[in-house]
Amino acid sequence: MSTQATAAEWIEAIAGKAFLPVPVVQEVLDRHAVEPQSTLPRRKSLRIRSVTLEGVKEGTVADGPFGRTFTFGPGLWAIVSDQNFRGKSTLLGVIQGGIRGDIHERVKPDVWRWLSKAEVVFEANGIGHRLLVTKDAGDPDKGAAGSFSREQDGGWFTLYEGTVGKPLERAVEDAMLAEFGFARFHAHNEKDGSHTHGWPVIASALFVDGPGKAVFGELLVDAIPLRLLQMFMGLPWVSTYTAAATALRRLRATKAERPTASRGLGNRLRTSLDAVDASLSSARGRVRPGPDRAVLRATMLEQDRRLLALREGIEETRQEAVRVDRQLQGATTLLLETRRALQQLRDERAAGVVLRTLRPVCCPSCDAGIDHNRHSRADEGSTCALCGTRQAPDEDEDALRLEELQRDVDDVEVNVAELSAQATKAQASQRGAEAELSKAIEASRATEAALRAEGSADLEMEIRGLEAQREQLLALIAAEEEEEEKEEAATGAHDEAVLQAAEEVTKDLYDGLAREILADVSREITTLSRSFGVQNIESMDWGTGGAMRIVQGKAPTSFGRLSPGENLRVRIAAALAVIEVARQRMYGRHPGLLVLDSPGAQEMAPADFAALLSRVHEAIQSAGDIQIIVGARADPTLLDVVPCDHVTHAHGERFLF
Amino acid sequence: MDGQPETTTSPDATRPARGGPAKPQIGFHHRDAVRLLYILALGSEEAAHDSRIFRGEKRAMAIDFLVRYPDYLADELLTRFETEGDPAGLDAASDIFDADEPDLRTVAMVRWRRGAFQNIEMPLSILAAHGLVRPLKQTAGQRRHDFIVLPAAFAFIERIEREQPSLGWYRSRVELVMTLTGFRSGSDLKGDQYLHPEYRDARHGTEIPSIKERVLARLRSLRGR
Known about the structure:
The complex is a heterodimer of chains A (about 650) and B (about 220).
Chain A: H1 7-18, H2 22-31, E1 46-57, E2 64-71, E3 75-81, H3 88-100, H4 103-106, H5 109-114, E4 115-124, E5 127-134, E6 145-152, E7 155-163, H6 166-180, E8 185-189, E9 193-197, H7 199-204, E10 207-208, H8 224-233, H9 238-286, H10 293-356, H11 372-380, H12 397-452, H13 454-492, H14 495-532, E11 537-542, E12 548-552, E13 555-557, H15 564-585, E14 593-596, H16 606-621, E15 627-633, H17 636-641, E16 647-650
Helix pairs in contact in A: 1-2, 1-14, 9-13, 9-14, 10-12, 14-15
Chain B: H1 29-42, E1 45-46, E2 52-55, H2 57-68, H3 70-84, H4 87-98, H5 101-104, E3 110-112, E4 115-117, H6 121-129, E5 133-135, E6 146-149, H7 151-163, H8 168-181, H9 186-193, H10 197-200, H11 212-224
Keywords (chain A): Coiled coil
Protein name (chain A): Large ATP-binding protein
InterPro entries (chain A): P-loop_NTPase
């Protein structure tokens, strides 16, 4: 199959390999976001146009305001100083920050404090972009204003405006990924699971500031160097292959985990069900045979009716008792009054009898004495000696009244006795009725208690609760089993087959081309490495799996085992090799920008670095659209290599800005 | 008994509410006269010329109150028992209730501005007309009414007890009261009576209520100790 296979051919190939109809394959691939990417990318370019720094220095030997714009073009450019710490790394950091959108993260705190403006203008595929950060000079706060703009019709079209930070970085990343046709690439590893890498990782490969673990970029994980190599080489189907392979690994990982989790959940549910069954059995065992609750309720109704009747009866007896008692009270009062009247009349009669035996000795009105004769005459005339009233025969009216009163007393006493007996009876009757009511209430309460018996009610509640739990668990287990079946049916059957087929088909699609390109790159790296001074290199072979087989002095070795100086040389060689191969083949996505920060003395002697750059200069001269910016200590050999109008030189004690 | 006891000033009240005895044409003046005689005689002290004198009409009324209200008398006796530890007081109070005296013997008095009051003119005139008692004429500046109890009174009392023994109750009652009152002044005795809230708070012109239940409860409480 050729590398120019269409998307339709690709799907048919997968369907054929997986023995599945195309629609099923399409559905699975869509679900896993595996898309065909069959076109060869055209070359890309990224160029730094200018860097402007403004601000006020503080705490240095040269305090005061500063403002300088550094301009760059295609070719080799050098930023040099006679002394260290003159601002080279700051400038290179601002360049990197400019194309990543994170200047604030790439400048040392003291320099950040001085700045009032940092501007990086660069071209992406010939279109100007500008990252501008403004702040108050002297303000250490990272919350500066940031904007990202694109050149349009002679002006700047703002893509982002706000504070510096993640949103700004995201805006730059989106624009750059779109511009260079890079896709965030998916990766899956055991440590982090599924995740994506984007523009920061790609951009980091454009900057070499010393030896590193990886040939490209800063990270070794997720086969990033290989991905970057493939991406820069511009192989078609790479993203597709990556997506398919990632989806397949993710699916397998999920399937490997899920059965365990699923079985775990199922087992836990079944264990819970067993426990609930045991509790239920125990609770049911505690149920004591007792009276039927329905019977108890009927009894209670009957008792309620009886209570009502008893209460009515009590009311009647109470009213009768009150009536009799009232009569008794009246009779008793009457008896007492009559007895008192009898007593008083008796006393009155006795007193009258004895007093009447006396003869008045004087007039009670005028105190005048009454002589004996007057009494004699009165006796003779049967008249009163005082008032002359004729005396009637003594009928002893008082005696009659006494008798009458005594009879009254006797009558009332009989009445009182009868009423008292009736009252006693009424009270006894009331007490009896009340006792009966008490008993009935007690019986009713006992029935109520039996109905509400806390123990049995609790037990009943417990059993109901356990039954509900059991139902719920059974439903959950059934749902879990169904889910397992569904998952097996949905994913297990086709997805893995389709993804595996997709991975294989896609790999086949680009594998041959990749081999050819990698062979070219390997050859170029070997040549460049040798010319950069890596000793005794016989061959460097970059396999499609990403490993670089190196034969050095007839002994096989690897990138990781190279000395720091060799490591740095090979990194630079690799970047240039990729750019060169892409240039030769007329396709590829490497943006053609390389920024090299000055290597340390232990890695490379200044003369060696100058020699290396000389080789670099030679290597890129033929490709007019490559830009290499180098930061280094000023060295005559270096200055000889770089065209003088491409050099920014801080002489003597001076600073770059 | 908390019912309305009849007073000698309203003889109509002697008729029970329903049926009952015949209405007396006059009040119980003879009984009142005999009771007053006992009070004046037993409460008198020696005076000149072999006669005896009872000092103070107010005092007579204060003594009369205790004779007419056996429940108030019982309360005084209980107080004496409590303050002096005299068991005779407790027994006497018990006897009063045992004999139903608060019900049978109460002759109610009306609460007037200066306490329990009973116009004694009628019984006094009976006693005076029969030569038993002689009210002393008031002299200028003397507001107190005193009474000379003539020797005939004592002879008559002997006759009463001989011919009408049932009236002997008045002697024993007045003697019992006298053990409490002695020769204290009428004002002093009334002061004690005002200590009873039922007496003190009775509306003027209404009968002084019985305190039988309260005293009975007090008696039972003291008996129960």
